[in-house]
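Wait, mind explaining this?

_____
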Amino acid sequence: MFGQRLRALRISNSYTQASLSDKIGVSEKTIGTWERGTREPPMATTVKLADIFDVTLDYLYGRNETPQWAKQKDTVDLKFFLDRNLVGAFYDGDELTEEQKAKLEIALTQIFWDQRKKERSDTDDSNKRTK
């Protein structure tokens, strides 16, 4: 789970493996081993990653789907979004397997939080301009 989350966060925040490795002081190859799940970073590095991506350690390790900045309404909206998009999920006429649905849920959750964060940022920028 950690590797999938790290890769999704890295990509959604426009980092390459090289740029992220420069930012935290490890090799690009090391980032790849974390993303593939063959190794995990030390706790101090994991904390750095959580800070960089503005998520909790629980989120990085798959124990919690909710970023630390989210509000209660956001979690309700996420549930509605997932319910609406996962019901009757098919590919080429066949219903997705449970494993495929779980992967799709991870992707949809990341898309939801990326969009919600962007909406918040756009709203904050708009409010700053009107003050």
Residues 98-130 form the longest helix (33 residues). The first strand starts at residue 90 and ends at 91.
